[in-house]
């Protein structure tokens, strides 16, 4: 088989990039060993929050904001192409202080954010409970990021896959054996179904990126970090907005389900829901909203974040011509999907990038692979 672009990995990143390239008329093959979008993409919380995830202004914050700005259009486009809802909600996110020490941390962050003219509101405890009456009486105020929100990652993963397939991307199931490099540049992949030749290879294999032979990344560039989530059921819905505390978060769905997350566990590829993990996420949730103590647990799961040493994504070109990266998104893969798709498509098509990708080059990771986000 010969195509213009091979994308290794059919999670939200790979499928979104494939959608943009197929729309541009490129012949795209997306390679996935199992079910498209069934791993980390479907297991995420679905939070869209630059204000909480990017702790201070800088290139990473700008990347997150650029992606958030694309989300309304991206979600509407994917919904129209797939015929599926992705559950986008833009009610804002709250980062709540439940003790005096965390309140001081949030106050310092707010000062820095406001000094740069970026969007945040500082709320006292009464204002917090006007927005979310179920919030703990221990709340010492919060930061409110009014233009942020959440969506359903499982629905997004399915919808982007369907949209990309309908745009012309070809999805191929099976194991990638290696990325082929000939004449000093990527020339395709060896796949269990045979060789697939391509002018460009995009590695979007998430936590499994370093298991692809010929990946060209520094040692330790991407590693799995396990996260566990529990889902509670509240009727009527107890909360409306995503709420962070200093130790985790809760993500309400419109039907009253509330995702409680998440752990950050260095356990390799050990996929399990554990007693300790559940205790952690449930303690976080009950600390945020004490009435959740009475809510039934209706679902649990775990999966792996593709973590880079500094917690920021690996995007664009590396040292091998023709081999590009869309991996290492750590815990912001859902948030960064639209801007990743546009940035990688621009890199392939030769158009202007939506953001400067230099800060996210794999070259930055050489020499400090032991650092944790």
How does this model look, in words?
The protein is globular, with a radius of gyration of 20 Å. The C terminus is likely disordered. Strands 1, 2, 8, 9, 10, 11, 17 and 18 form an eight-stranded mixed beta sheet that branches. An eight-stranded mixed beta sheet has the order 5-6-4-13-14-15-12-16. A two-stranded antiparallel ribbon has the order 3-7. The two termini are 39 Å apart. It is of the alpha/beta class.
Distinctive features:
8-stranded mixed β-sheet, alpha/beta, disordered C terminus, 373 residues
Question: Helices and strands in order, then pairings?
Answer:
Blueprint: E1 2-8, H1 12-23, E2 28-32, H2 40-43, E3 47-48, H3 50-53, H4 59-82, E4 93-96, H5 100-115, E5 121-123, H6 125-131, E6 142-145, E7 149-150, H7 153-167, E8 170-173, E9 176-182, E10 185-191, E11 194-203, E12 223-233, E13 242-244, E14 249-252, E15 257-261, H8 275-288, E16 297-307, E17 314-317, E18 323-327, H9 337-349
Parallel strand pairs: 1-2, 1-11, 2-8, 4-13, 11-18
Antiparallel strand pairs: 3-7, 4-6, 5-6, 9-10, 10-11, 12-15, 12-16, 13-14, 14-15, 17-18
Helix pairs in contact: 1-7, 1-9, 4-7, 4-9
